[in-house]
Amino acid sequence: MARLVVAGHGMVAARFLQELSALGHDHDVEVFAAEDCEPYNRVLLTDLLMGTAGGRDLRLPGIEDPRIRVQRGTSVASLDRHNRRVRTSDGTTVGYDHLVLATGARARTVDLEGIDSHQPPTGVHVLRSIDDAAAIIAAASQARSAVVLGGGVLGLEVACGLARRTASVTVVHPTGVLMDRQLNAGACEALQTTLAAMGISCLLHTTAEKVLTRNGNLSGLVLSDGRRLDAELLVMSCGTVPETGVAQAAGLTCAPGVLIDADTLATEDPLIYAIGDCASPPEGSSGLVAQGWEQARRLARLLTGSPVAAPSRTPAPTDVVRVKGGLDVVSMGVNAAASTHSSQRRIQLLDASAGRFVEVVVDGDRIVGATAVGAGSTAADLTAAYTRAIAVPKDPAQMLIRPSDSAAGRTGSPTTMPESLTVCSCNGVSKGDLMRAWEAGDRSVAEVSARTRATTGCGGCSDVVAGIVEWLAAGDPDQTTSSGALEDDTQRKRDAHEMEMSRG
Amino acid sequence: MLLSILQVVFSLGLADEHYLRTRTTGADAVRAAAGYWWPERAEGLCGVPADEIRRAAAILAAGSPAHGGHGTVILTGRGVEQGIRGTDTVTAAINLALALGLPGQPNSGYGPITGQGNGQGGREHGQKCDQLPGYRSIEDPAAREHVAGVWGVDPSALPGPGLPAVELLSAIGTDQGPRALLIHGSNPAVSAPDSQAVVERLRALELLVVCDFVPSETSQLAHVVLPVTQWAEEEGTVTSVEGRILRRRQAVDPPPGVRSELEILADLAGRLGSQVAFDTSADAVFDELARASAGGRADYSGLSHALLDEESAQFWPVPANGVSTPRLFAERFATTDGRARMVAVDAGNPTTGPDISLVTGRVLQHYQTGAQTRRVTVLDKAVPEPYVQVHPTLAQRLNIAEGDIVDVRSPRGTARARARLSVNIRPDTLFMPFHWGGSGCVNRVTEDVCDPVSGMPAFKLTDVTVTPALGQVC
Ligand SMILES: Cc1cc2nc3c(=O)[nH]c(=O)nc-3n(C[C@H](O)[C@H](O)[C@H](O)COP(=O)(O)OP(=O)(O)OC[C@H]3O[C@@H](n4cnc5c(N)ncnc54)[C@H](O)[C@@H]3O)c2cc1C
């Protein structure tokens, strides 16, 4: 039996082991997990902070496979490629035939004046692990003012979570654009409208320089522009760094993650693979779990000799960034921050004061990127169009807002509506049928309904029928008032209902 | 989407944890599997906004008895069953109902809405290739013994499981398959997937006999057509999705020369040389099925036409002591330990496109293949012909205008119908109703692939191309 060693037991390793087990493998698998807990869903740490998830909701599916053993609280300390073995934090040595690196990433910290890295002041945090989240939640309950350093995706999610827990939350961001890997100035402007409504202040073009402490507790910050900010809680959200220490020490090239081949997922050493946040594939690491899960699925199939992809189906793109925590922001592919190719068209809608920005990037008849802030269900439509590679309309601007599905939007005004148009699809009643009902003497919605049965099915056409009756009344010289058409909706529905009942 | 609603139910503490602990097994695995589908992730795959998913979870939970609501019922239609992952989808819906603590509670539970009048009642009494009366498995030796005892035959005289419908239809008329087929009130020449291949198979039969009360595309292929009574011309019962059994009474006399299906079966038995005198009155046959169902899940043994005629509410199981069960699963589920088994399912790996998917379904005005409803003038006038529902965005890209005749193609075949533009459909999806035969028969296009567990054909989601038609609609 081939010996497979897995370093790390985070979101991607857990998925890899699950897939491996489900495919039926013939490996003897030894997993080393630095964290002393069951694998959990790191993505939902935001929800934990928001208070919309409890600790056990983060659990990932367990596996029962006698050939997979997990050593919790034990990390891989070093790697001896020559002799094909790893040494663990508890000093044991384990040989491998194949090694999978799934060590993830850690939060990047910045050196600030006033922080002794050996004894940081109470109140300074990062968010990467479940322990980090618990510590932030505990600190937030004591703090009146919180500062988030870095207004990227994670920073904004953290700010949203803290806004529910502390009186004041400020995001400090070095450039002029929040989420500058995804957004441009217009999108950022729209986003700031929403953040302001949530009570989150943003300081752009500045960064923290120095922390102020009182009795070993954080009390404030000095910014690069000289301003001082009260802060009893500081969360640094300044990006992540792939966890590559062991690989680097063993001579594997890291830039910034362990370099891997796109197809085989192998590092320079063909016996060693890397997947998830610790890996750098040729197309770059997105830092999103979808990419790691796709690698996990692929590697499990490669190691069990299973076909890698179903013919005719390509995996969905894995670079959709969807901000959680109640912010309506999504970006994908060639987003608002990316530069476009000469063949690409960029179509935008900006309505900053309403907090809305929508952009699609189109190449030929495909959507290759999109960004949506405060766009409601349009964002979901764009994501579906992008992940499913749906061809775009001839005029891509149509994708920026949802076609109105109100009755008026569907049928236009009664004047321009063709006579043959079916108004009530339950009963197959056309505009022409309603006109003939009017000619036959009907003068109210109730009367035309009684004759034609329009509105008596699902009732979805009530407004259109009322509109047509009103239009007929307005155009009828004998009709001085259109009161029949304007009777209140409830009465109209009640009448229609009674007619249904009396028809039996 | 169902997994994501479940994820929200668990993570917002909306689940009925007491119910999960005391009345189910397997909840932990289901909870963990749902954890993969937080709403923002599900949104990207299913196109339903994350907030809508959260809202759906809140609405379902608010109605649940555990949250003091007046009841929540989760129903699935045929659509979700008709995909290659149909069983998984329905399982996810059941998991959601269980997580909310619904089954067995007042005004609450889960139910599948069947496609036909008495689809429920028929299935309960063995109208499925692997079942015996009373929702019993034809492979269960104890069930075989009981049912054989009622009929006074040796258990080994009962056949084993037959072929599911799609497999049967592709086997008929082949060297290995049946050479003769007796069809009751079904129109597979229109309703089966890959219908043109099915027509070929029906033509290859040595003998095709169709019992129906209206002509159909299938009966036109038959060697013999036996006219039978329509529902208002015969006695019987009908069972609803809640397990309520209702009496169905004869309202009008059948035309002369028309036999009931019971008479046809009895006559056929006689012609085949059976010594057994088969009953032909509905109440006697009902009594026989009731005896056969005794002790089964859908136990009708305490029921009779006479009792049902009293019009008291009767819900199965009604064992011989005559006590009806108004609420199924109130105390226990039909498993050995009495607990509902929750089975974890996942949504599989997201892939991109097909470019255009075809969904089939119904319109309000027509029933099944339309053999009956196309004969009713008002219904026929309301929706006189098949159509292809297309999103305006897709229509514009394909140069299709409202009312244009279009061809919808798959490797199986082509269906031709008029385009109807609508924003109530996704821009990557077409909808076609399945109530017509001929060139507009949508099942010329559908594939005969099935869900591996249920054998249900994947009518939903066929990869298709669509082009403006050059010729005329036939
Ligand atoms: C708050 C938050 C929100 C996020 N939101 C999203 C989101 O909305 N969408 C999204 O796609 N992604 C999101 N992410 C990113 C996502 O969590 C990561 O992409 C994912 O966790 C990567 O999985 P992984 O297994 O590669 O790394 P990890 O999940 O980090 O797991 C690596 C594991 O390996 C362990 N380890 C490290 N070194 C060693 C060693 N030498 N030996 C043994 N074990 C070791 C680590 O302790 C860790 O447990 C979010 C991340 C955070 C922190």
Describe the structure using short key phrases.
heterodimer; A: 504 residues; alpha/beta; FAD/NAD(P)-binding domain; Enolase-like, domain 1; 4 domains; five-stranded parallel β-sheet; 14 helices; 27 strands; 28% helix; 24% strand; globular; disordered C terminus; B: 474 residues; Dimethylsulfoxide Reductase, domain 2; Rossmann fold; Barwin-like endoglucanases; 3 domains; four-stranded mixed β-sheet; three-stranded parallel β-sheet; 30% helix; 15% strand; binds flavin-adenine dinucleotide
Give your account of this protein's structure.
The complex is a heterodimer of chains A (504) and B (474). Chain A is of the alpha/beta class. Chain A has 4 domains: 2-106 and 242-304, FAD/NAD(P)-binding domain; 124-238, FAD/NAD(P)-binding domain, CATH 3.50.50.60; 328-405, 2-Layer Sandwich (Enolase-like, domain 1); 422-494, Orthogonal Bundle (Arc Repressor Mutant, subunit A), CATH 1.10.10.1100. Helix content of chain A is 28%, strand content 24%. Chain A is built from 14 helices and 27 strands. Chain A has a 5-stranded parallel β-sheet, with helices on one face. A 5-stranded parallel β-sheet of chain A has the order 9-16-10-11-12. Chain A has a 5-stranded antiparallel β-sheet with strand order 21-22-25-24-23, with helices on both faces. In chain A, helix 10 (431-439) packs across helix 12 (462-474) and helix 11 (445-452) runs parallel beside helix 14. The longest helix of chain A has 15 residues, at 289-303. Chain A starts with a strand and ends with a helix. The model of chain A is unreliable at 405-409 and 480-504 (pLDDT under 50). Chain B has 474 residues and is of the alpha/beta class. Chain B has 3 domains: 2-113 and 337-341, Dimethylsulfoxide Reductase, domain 2; 119-240 and 244-310, Rossmann fold, CATH 3.40.50; 357-468, Barwin-like endoglucanases, CATH 2.40.40. Chain B is built from 17 helices and 18 strands. Chain B has helices at 2-11, 17-23, 27-34, 39-46, 50-63, 78-81, 86-99, 119-124, 141-151, 165-171, 188-191, 195-204, 261-271, 282-293, 305-309, 377-382, 392-397; strands spanning 24-25, 73-76, 109-112, 131-132, 136-137, 180-184, 207-212, 224-227, 236-239, 245-248, 340-341, 357-361, 387-390, 405-409, 414-421, 429-433, 462-463, 465-468. Chain B has a 4-stranded mixed β-sheet with strand order 13-15-14-18. In chain B, helix 1 (2-11) crosses helix 5 and helix 9 (141-151) runs antiparallel to helix 14. The longest helix of chain B is centred in the N-terminal third of the chain and has 14 residues, at 50-63. The two termini of chain B are 40 Å apart. The mean pLDDT of chain B is 92. Bound molecules: flavin-adenine dinucleotide (FAD). Flavin-adenine dinucleotide (FAD) binds at residues 7-13, 32-35, 42-43, 45-46, 75-76, 102-105, 127-128, 154, 243, 246, 276-278, 287-290, 292, 324 of chain A.
